What we know:
Elements: H1 2-15, H2 20-26, E1 34-39, H3 46-50, E2 57-62, H4 76-87, E3 92-98, H5 102-108, H6 117-122, H7 127-135, H8 144-160, H9 164-171, E4 176-182, E5 189-193, E6 198-201
Parallel strand pairs: 1-2, 1-3, 3-4
Antiparallel strand pairs: 4-5, 5-6
Amino acid sequence: MEEIIAGVHAFQRDVYPQQWKLFERLAKGQSPDAMIVACSDSRVDMPLVTQSEPGKLFELRNAGNLVPPYGRFVGGVTATIEFAVVALRVPNIIICGHSGCGAMAGLLNPKQLRGMPRVADWLQHATVVRDSLAAAGQLDLPDALERAVEANVIVQLDHLRTHPSVAEALRAGKIQLHGWVYHIASGEVTAYDAREKEFVPL
């Protein structure tokens, strides 16, 4: 904690004085350019990766960057999406997975979830990913985790479209949906190309 508190002091001493006008403006309200649904993994820092200053990204983070289908689960994810789309009118929503995702590893290997029943329950929102890999005989491939990460992004985009606020904004042409994967070791970000049905460099 000492290092974290020291960071707060450094922010107040060195950063805030240089950007006080930005923070003064942000104190009056927000108008983010995008909502991003990313994993809670501590290695995933999307403002850093996108070089976005405060106020640009409306972030929603959870284990596995999951979006429960509308109606199956009412909670913080559903409420946050609704707020972003209806109140903030975000023009973009990005679902961003990442390499080496522990949630997806647990999904593929349920033994890793021993002692974490609520995590196992939460990952039920991605079981179609494991099922599809199993049906294709890909669970034991060396790149199974990478395949799961990508497949999960696509599944969560489908879930996102079930939310009434998102569906309405899509029909009105007021929002665009994006699927990304952040590759930690290389810093690369790949994006899902719906026409080609594959992830390509951003």
